[in-house]
Amino acid sequence: MRWVETGIVVLALAGAASGVVGCKGKGSSGKELPVGAVPVEASARAEGSPITTTHTNAAQPDPQAAPLVQQAPLSFAPIAKKADPGVVTINTMSEEVEPRGIFSRGGRRRETKGLGSGFLIDKDGVVVTNNHVIDGADAISVQLSNGHHYEGKVVGRDPRTDIAVVRIAAKEPLTPLELGDSDSLEVGDWAVAIGNPFGLSHTVSAGIVSAKGRSRDDVPLDPTGYYNFIQTDASINPGNSGGPLFNLKGQVIGMNTAIRGNAQGIGFAIPINMVKQLLPGLLRDGKIIRSALGVRIRDARELMPDERQKLHYDADKGAIIEAVEQGGGADKAGLKAEDVIVGFEGQDVDRGTQLQWLASTAGVGRTVTIRVIRAGKTFDQKVTLGELPEPKKLPKAPPRHAPSNDDDDDPLGRR
Predict the structure, then answer these.
(1) Tens-place pLDDT, residues 132-154
(2) Which residues are catalytic?
(3) pTM of the complete model beyond 0.85
């Protein structure tokens, strides 16, 4: 399986549904019909008579019923026309020194170029894009829809969410895009993408929101990353990275980031609410300073039957503490391994990735209330959050390159 980040020249690629707890109808025999079943009365047909496909209990169509789906837009042109001035093309340049080889002395300098997308979020020239679009760049050029180029300066970046902020000093009025509410999205809503796939600037494509809440279990990129992707079948390709995904109001609901390399119509976008939540820290500090509970966790849905019996916990929601960091906030609050965290500041915790995001963005030094189940007993506990250390830096990626047929040899489909 190949995964491709949608920056055309990027090498470094930048939960499964919860189980359903079955239930029976009233009574203990387990023979009752499930909820919603329509019983066929014995008197409805004589013994030996053929079974028909209609009966008096079948739902009949209502000729006065309103359509569930309202009329689709006749054209996406108004969205494209309004949004196009706020979408930018990002060109990057980096210079690499060739290492010494067996048959070469090395030392030669080689220039590599990259391409991606981005979008303006204010009139002062602040541009949002993917971190992997600008990662390792020595020079950044931002091109507006009118063809004008400006030098881009990195203001802040967060590799763990693949979000970066670039600023330009434009000598002309700029048209920022309106940021929407990604939490209000529903699966099946229309979605419109604008970007620069394969260098074809300001390409517009449309589709729907295919799914929500795709995590790093579904999109295996950086294992230390925080992901809550919107899945869409709007056409997204290398070069779309950092470009906006719109709703029918022309509001940005996501930032296009990755595609599945061996499939069609499976693209992923970072929800714009995640971007909005991190923007103040990126603009102020140039990075994200994360808070932490001080625990290592796993999803409750991964528990085996014997583990559930031991923990007195049958549900699939929540996060199981596997280990507690000595001296951390959870340790000081008296939390232990095998405790189940099911709530954070009044919000239910369904998955471990959700808890990680909530804890990491709450703020260092803040005291929060978490809901815990221990040996079948539920209680609330206050925990003061510490600071999450940054992961060790990985070695510098090899020089980036344009796509070639050799890319099929890369199991990750990296570009």
Answers:
(1) 999 989 999 999 999 999 999 99
(2) 132, 162, 241
(3) no
